[in-house]
Structures are given as C-alpha cells and as structure tokens.
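Annotated sample (chain length 291).
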Amino acid sequence: MEKLSNPQVTIETIKKHGFDFQKKFGQNFLIDARVLEKIMDAAEITKEDCVLEIGPGIGTMTQYLAERAKKVIAVEIDSNLIPILQETLADYDNVQVINEDILKLDIETLVKTENGGNPIKVVANLPYYITTPIIMGLFEQHVPLDNITVMVQKEVADRMQVGPGTKEYGALSLAVQYYAKPYIVANVPPNCFIPRPNVASAVIRLTRYTEPPVQVRNEKLMFQLIRASFNQRRKTLVNGIGNSSETPYSKEQTAKALEAMGLSITVRGEALTLEEFARLSDELEAQNPFS
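Output written by the structure step:
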C-alpha cells in the first residue's frame, strides 16, 4: 500500500476502519515524510538493528523502520489499532506487533528473547503525558540500548538538554544527562500531525553512555537528593532535602556537606551541576550511610 506519511492515505485508513482518536492515549499521528526521514537518519537505523517502537499508531513510522531495520518490535496499548496495523504492515515480515502497555512490559526480557540481549534502538512518537516515565523506565531498568530517538513535546525536549541556572533545568535534565547525551534533531510544528496537537513538538536523540559522565557511590541516593531539591524549587537545597520524606538527612547534615564542597548553604538545587549532585551524595553518605 501507499505510505501512510501521505495525509490522504492516513485519513482514508482512519475512515475505513472507523477509528476514533482516544484522548487518554495522547494519539497524534505523524503525517510528514520529511520529519520521518529525519528521525530515521538521526536514529541511524541499519539492517543490523532491532528497533523497539513505542506507540506505532496506525503504522506510519513502522513502515519506514521496517524498510531500514533487521527487526521492528512495535508495542501498542490501544487494541482498536491492532486490526489496522495488521493491514498497514501486511507487506513487512520483519515486524512484530505487541498489544501491551509499555510501562508494564518486561522490556529487558523482551530484548534478551528477540535480540539476544544485544543493544536495541528505541524510536517513538511518544504520548506526551507519559514521556518521562517511559524514557526514565528504559534508563533505570538498564535496558541494553544504543540510543532513543523520540518525538516529544518541545518544552520537554528543551528540559532534557539544558544546564544549571535556567528555569527549564530540573530533575529530568539531570536524570537524562546522567544516562545519555541529548541532542535535539528537529523542531516539529503541529500541522505535521493528525489531529493537530495544541503544543509544538521536537525530535530528540538520547545517545546512551557506556559509562555515566560522573561517578557516584550510590546512584539511588543521588536521584533521591535531586528529586528532593527540585520538589520545592524556591527553597534552598538545605531546606528541600531537610523537608523531604524521601531522604533521612537533616538540614544540618546537608549544610555540613555543602560547606565541605565549598558551596554556600543558601544555594538552590537549580545551581548545582550533575557532578556537584554526585559529590553531595557521596559527602552525605560518608556522614550517614543510606541505601
């Protein structure tokens, strides 16, 4: 069949199957061939690759992936889309469609089974309301992967790549930059989708680090401190950590650790680099080991 990146083909396919867009799944189908090619190029998909696609929709991007990759595993939560995918992907024998919630799927086991535990590439036009849990889930589960190339809300893409001292900088920035190198590939306007979203979008590539850019003794503790620091952005880091139920450290202990680092006890979390959060974590754990 003709490519679904042709808006007319997408409209005809939707009408043929009587498909209704589900707001709860954040469904916006990409209909711009140029953007799709940019995503393929950015992800560097080759015939050696096993690709995990999250939220294939009616199969628009899946068609492009199938032509370039060795295998595509497409995970779709909406059971109403499965019959459509069976039709739109009928010409491709290297695509496996799984009707499942990606947040409940054992991706590590899937990768072992389907790709021998070798690193996969993740490509997706992500539902914006669950972008962060999906990306962080992939990183925190230590799924073997080479890179993640995804369409997200532009505001979220900006947050992933900014540094200290900016209003967009936060827990997501630090988490993403601990696991991967972010690079915004392209900005994508609303008219590239059916239906049009109310926000601008961006394609971002996250290249997984073999080793994190900073060393920390207790990764879990560092992220607890980061979350505590940004949960109350306007408070000082001492108060943010001291008021958090997630960490056992007092304001006095945090102040002592900051002084040992040569930092002011009135500093806010948004001023600290990833390296400084790693050092803060190590300083606090040296005072009072915590797991």
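Annotation: The longest strand covers residues 145-153.
Annotation: The radius of gyration is 21 Å.
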